[in-house]
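Sanity check

After download, print the first record. It should look like this:
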Amino acid sequence: MGQLNATGLDLNSNGLLEAVGTDRFTETEVAFFKDESDTWWASSQTKYYRDSNSPPCVSSTRSRLTGLSAPLMAQTVTTDFFGNTTITTSAVGSTAKTRVESTDSADRTRTVRTTSRPPYWHKSVRQFLERVDVLYRRLRYRRTSNLIR
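Expected structure tokens:
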């Protein structure tokens, strides 16, 4: 799909990044799949080739694309190089305009929950853009009025 899938150092200078050899590189595979509950996921698996002729270190991430019912907004499952799995979910809070983000280890031994409100910058940005528009119109009017004289 027009996506970079490998980057690294071609140490044997043969013009290729090879897993069997001295090259040091990172390879990423992206795929979409449907699980047994008919939920679609976007999956990314990264392999790090760091030593000569050794198996790669592998990490993976998958993000839920469908099956997000209220209050669930997003879910990501990440597995690191050591096989530790972390599940991160984002949901709409029970109080209006809040977002609850939860990060759990797969064995449920570590849990972090944060609650946040969205930033209210949109009002100040709108006011700023209105001022810029007024200044632009004034400058444009002055330029055209000078040409008429």
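If your output differs, re-run the checksum step. Summary of this record's structure: The chain has a mean pLDDT of 78.
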